[in-house]
Amino acid sequence: MDLFNQTMSLEEALFRDLFFAKTEEDVNTVIESYPHIFGNDDNWYPLGKNESNFGVIENQQSSPIAALIEKITNSIDAILMKKCYEAGIDPKSLKAPQSIEDAVTQFFPNSKSWDLPKLRRLQAEDIQVIADGPRMDTSLIIYDNGEGQHPEEFEATFLSLLRGNKNEIHFVQGKYNMGGTGAIVFCGKKRYHLIGSRRFDETGRFGFTLIRKHPLSKQEQHTKKNTWYEYLKINKKIPAFDITELDVGLYNRKFKTGTLIKLYSYDLPAGSRSVISRDLNQSINEYLFVPALPIYTIDKKERYPLDRALERELYGLKRRLEQDDSKYIEDFFSETYEDQKIGKMKVTCYVFKPKMEGKTIKESRESIRREFFKNDMSVLFSVNGQVHAHYTSEFITRSLKFPLLKNHLLIHVDCTEMDLNFRNELFMASRDRLKGGDESRYLREKLADALKKGKLKEINKRRKEAITVEGGEAQELLKSLTKNLPFNEDLLKLLNQTFKLEERKKEPPNPQEKKSKNEKKRRNPLSENDFRPFSS
After folding, report:
1. Torsion sign over Cα 252, 256, 259, 265
2. Are residues 205 and 324 in the same domain?
3. For a disulfide at 69, which of 182, 287, 462, 522, Cβ 3.0-4.6 Å?
4. Does the predicted model carry a pTM greater than 0.90?
């Protein structure tokens, strides 16, 4: 069915107008065009059937990128669930895969071939993140070719909270039934968030709803401390209509089944507001260190008419770091540590080159930061490939005491096989930061102790020795620094013990300066000690 035919129903027209609204302001215009629907309070229902949902939804991820990752993770889960159903397996049964890795191996037997760009791009079409709207007011569309939902099931799935829908399914990331709501709070000021879906087996209709922050009336402003989040129903039902396919601007395909989500006027950080297939792509790669499935990020010609790389697939930061021909990485290595309290954790260190071919040290450092540390994450803690928390480079300088590696070291800590009880005490339910408890302090201490020894210590020693090589660029930078800045003599002596600097000679007094000072003294014979208060 063509979405835009002349005999479309009210539901079709409403979905069309909402989906092709490019910004929050455009959604406002749509709402004003349908006052009998959006202006009817009886058509709005609190998310999770709870008017106290504000606290749950607002207390999610603190970063718009981390919140967006939860949406993408849900898309990966949806595709794995679809594959499980297609195989005739109950996802909660013992016959189902018991880990995400097992699910990929079982449901995608050719997944090893995703190392080849052509096959990786083909698979990535099943999950697309697409930019829409003007450059400085970007909306995001997220599509997945996953299980999808019947309109009748929306309230038990997309629109529910804290039901733990996935808690008994071991091959998906989700478990709390709330992480996907974290992105809502970054959708403009009115939090418009559109959901459309159709079940994977092509049974049932295409359903959709709009989520928003409830606009408090003047009377409610006097009686309510907080507002709440709500979703649209028409005549007490999720609006729906029949489709065969929809042309909604997806890359290389039309929509048939799965899920569409639109986040209006999404509050992307300043560093991710350019072509999303470049900057946002890099950020998603950082947070999805080892995603189960490849993903496409897609921008539009109307937004960046001169850009020639509007579509880029991504497959996790790990694969970028470990590619054979990396121009950035000098060395990487892994160690597995076991502790009675922590259990098992695999730690991988990636050491970047101090200087890349054709670039100065400063240019090399800036390039590395831009490509791999966009979100200032130097130590990544992941579970099943998704980053759940991080440390900044402060851990490298203060805990490891390797300041020379501050801008040239990335550490990945795989927490998947940690003791479950210990791991549950490490991370917040929002999966974007560590708890400030005994477990996180213990982990930091043990991680630092382990990394101070062995190979990383030797690498730091070599870097230190390389700086002292006569004629080296780093040595010249340090010499210039000590010559041109007014260092205390004791500090210079301390630096000289480590870096073998040339001793800075004291300059002989300039006779002309001495003469000038004496002349000034003769013109001003009174010193400050000669001043006395006037007496009466």
Report:
1. positive
2. no
3. 287
4. no
